[in-house]
Design goal:
The protein has a nine-stranded mixed sheet, sandwiched between helices. The protein has a domain at about 25-30 and about 60-200: Rossmann fold. With about 300 residues, the protein is of the alpha/beta class. Helix 4 (about 150-160) crosses helix 5. It contains ten helices and nine strands.
Length: about 300
């Protein structure tokens, strides 16, 4: 797939948004627990590959808690909070508005619903109802570990219980989880925005393994265990594998060229493989701040008009 932006069809690029002050990547001291597991995996991963692969998967599937940002809390004053039960887990949901047309917000890994609220008021202003939720093992919802399939079960439950949902905005991990979910259900949803999301799940696993100094033999065992748990090959988690099965008419991809969490190439791969996608490129907003940029928000809102 192409890495040269000049080869991308301009007819499907909605806008290129550059910010003057580019993101600054801060590198702090690693927690001792991470250094400990790096030592264990690096030195014993080839010897006890099967046992340690299971431990590594536990870490991979356990999100660290991200506390809510105080500046993002005011919007919840006007939300209707509700706890729903999905596969024996209590899931916290939030609803704004009472319109008969609804947009569902799906947050990413180690995040929570409050980090998607930049879209709430603009959507309300356009006459939409908005629903958000804290995914399993995230925010105020139950659970300690989760994966894209179990996370998607919540998305499916909400969609099946609210026929007014017309579109979805998903960030990062929420993208492939939602695409996988839509590919495995009957849905009338025709529009979706995918922000800074990974396509190649194998690459996500590899980046995790690189970070934790996990040897190749142990990484292969991790994938075996993950596939057994998910009940499908890892490749069937790729967005490019599932998008054709979703029934979506049009998808808006939004990604930053300098994203240091999910490589920009993932968006290019999805864009080139799926003619029903369009693309908003940014440069300097990174992986998270991209959700709060006024120009990005305006393009997303316009997409649903």
């Amino acid at each position: 797939m192409s890495k040269d932006l000049n080869t991308i069809p301009n007819s499907r690029i909605i806008e290129k948004i550059h910010v003057k002050d580019h993101i600054q990547i801060k590198k702090g001291k690693l927690p001792k627990i991470i250094s400990f597991f790096r030592f264990i995996f690096r030195n014993f991963g080839n010897i006890f590959s099967n046992f340690l692969a299971k431990k590594a998967n536990d870490i991979f599937l356990t999100p660290f808690d991200k506390p809510p940002h105080k500046d993002l809390q005011n919007v919840f004053k006007n939300a209707v909070e509700k706890d729903i039960l999905v596969h024996n887990l209590k899931i916290k949901t939030y609803t704004w508005g009472t319109s008969d047309k609804t947009i569902l917000l799906v947050h990413g890994w180690e995040s929570r619903s409050c980090y998607m609220v930049s879209f709430v008021q603009p959507l309300l202003d356009q006459g939409y109802k908005v629903i958000a939720f804290d995914g399993p093992a995230h925010g105020l919802s139950d659970g300690k570990m989760t994966n894209m399939v179990d996370f998607g079960k919540v998305t499916r439950h909400i969609i099946e219980n609210d026929s007014s949902i017309e579109g979805i905005i998903a960030h990062s991990f929420g993208g492939p989880s939602t695409i996988y979910t839509l590919a495995h259900m009957n849905s009338s949803i025709k529009k979706m925005v995918i922000i800074a999301s990974p396509n190649d799940i194998s690459a996500v696993i590899h980046r995790f393994c690189t970070f934790f100094h996990i040897p190749e033999k142990m990484e292969k065992r991790m994938i075996v265990h993950l596939e057994k748990m998910l009940k499908h090959p890892i490749q069937e988690s790729y967005m490019n594998f599932n998008i054709p099965k979703t029934g979506l008419d049009t998808i808006l991809l939004v990604h930053d060229e300098l994203d240091d969490i999910v490589p920009f190439q993932d968006a290019i791969d999805v864009f080139e493989a799926n003619p029903n996608t369009s693309l908003v490129l940014t440069k300097g907003l990174g992986h998270s701040k991209i959700k709060y940029n006024p120009k990005v928000i305006a393009k997303i809102i316009h997409f649903f008009e």
